[in-house]
UniProtKB/TrEMBL annotation:
Pfam family, one: DUF4199
Annotated source species: Maricaulis maris
UniProt-listed InterPro entries: DUF4199
Keywords from the named record: Membrane, Transmembrane, Transmembrane helix
Protein name per its UniProtKB record: Uncharacterized protein DUF4199
Transmembrane segments annotated in the record for this chain: 37-54, 66-89, 140-166
Length: 176
């Protein structure tokens, strides 16, 4: 099972890292921030590899039968490894761009609030709140888990659904 996690986790992680870098460089808006919808769609597509990993393990290694908990464990392992790839890709991008993401993000959020008609006092309070967040985000010990938390819940969801579906041996049976 470890080999399956390493192989499929690396594939999913490489895909999600590619989506991250492409999204932040090619699809970034005028504020320098990529589309959240495209980002999460890329994560979901990349993490669909979990379904393939569980199915392959069920069909090739286990003779077509897998229980829910082992399937879930396999899926979570793939999701965790993909999350490590995602965090690594984000750290490379974040540091290669001289941490400009936070300034772009802050300016975009302030512009959006101004456009929505926020008062000067509300904008000042928001700036203070975001400055504290930016200071925290500048520390790797805060940034790494926060980045991992972006992707891992999606992996948990895909793992739960895949494990629930693939425990049924009649769903997409292995054909020899």
């Amino acid at each position: 099972m470890t080999r399956i996690i390493l192989v499929f986790g690396s594939i999913a992680g490489s895909l999600v890292a590619l989506f991250l870098i492409l999204g932040m460089t090619l699809l970034a808006g005028s504020d320098g921030v990529g589309s959240e919808a495209i980002g999460y769609l890329g994560m979901l597509l990349s993490l669909s590899i979990i379904f393939i990993a569980i199915k392959r393990h069920r069909d090739i290694n286990l003779g077509g039968v897998i229980r829910f908990w082992p399937a879930l464990a396999l899926g979570l392992g793939v999701a965790a490894l993909a999350g490590v790839f995602y965090v690594t890709a984000w750290e490379i991008y974040f540091n290669a761009t001289d941490r400009a993401f936070m300034d772009s993000y802050l300016n975009g959020q302030i512009a959006a609030r101004e456009a929505a008609g926020a008062t000067a006092a509300e904008l000042a309070a928001f700036r203070d709140e975001m400055s504290a967040m930016m200071e925290l985000y500048g520390n790797w010990w805060f940034r790494l888990p926060m980045t991992f938390i972006e992707i891992f819940p999606i992996g948990v969801l895909v793992s739960l659904i895949s494990a629930a579906l693939l425990r049924n041996r009649k769903l997409l049976p292995h054909r020899v």
